[in-house]
Write the structure tokens for this entry.
Amino acid sequence: MESIVLGSGSKGNATLIRSGRTTLLIDAGLSYRAMKRRLAGSPFSLTDVTAVLVTHEHTDHTKGLRMVMKEHRVPLYTAESVLAALPADVEVDEFVPIEPHVHQSVGDFEIYPVPLSHDTETTLGFVFFSEGKKVVYATDTGFIDEKLHPVFQNADAYILEANYDVTMLFTSERPYALKRRIDSVRGHLSNSDSAYYLSRFVGDKTRVIVLAHPSEECNTPERALATFREVFLSYDLSPADYEVHVARQHEPSKLFRL
Ligand SMILES: [Zn+2]
Ligand SMILES: [Zn+2]
């Protein structure tokens, strides 16, 4: 299995994951041009994409969707309520409805969609299974319900939101109502929330951790990593046992092979 995060943050999100002959695009929240440009030099191409999975309808996850669907005519997998909330100009040839907690086969992947807690009717996270490996993908959630913890346990890789540093958020110039929204149970995970959940989830198989969807205004890669280390050490876990990356808004991640 291999994966690359093309960009991640409140201005746009797109990730590719491949196993065997199946390449999935998770969210298309960057412009089509930006996605193409960021894939140059990688072993991935948008022409390899066999299906698109959309987590939710927010623009930072769907901005490039119209062009992807127009150019590649691949099936779209998402929840009914997300499809209904997409802009009218997104043409979908084949829609495959997916529901939280219902396993779904997509080519060489088995996918387990999970419900996240965000300010939309449905926001999905995904657990990908293939080649005996497991990858957890979850961003845009105010918290992670305890019911999901067993399925999130001991994945080979996590792409998990670490959106904001609590101090940077509350000392920022943002309107108070927006700060409350971000920090609410239907908002986003802070660096410390994220590190705490990861400390509960990691296991002997876990190798790669990507801290995702960072806020440009209320976070820095250094703070996200420092919080991760601090929290792991406080639970007697060794941060050095994992390959930890912070996804970036304006550049792709390295390619992760599992
Ligand atoms: Zn988002
Ligand atoms: Zn969102």
Remarks:
- The chain has one domain: 2-249.
- Residues 2-249 form a domain with the Metallo-beta-lactamase; Chain A fold (CATH 3.60.15.10).
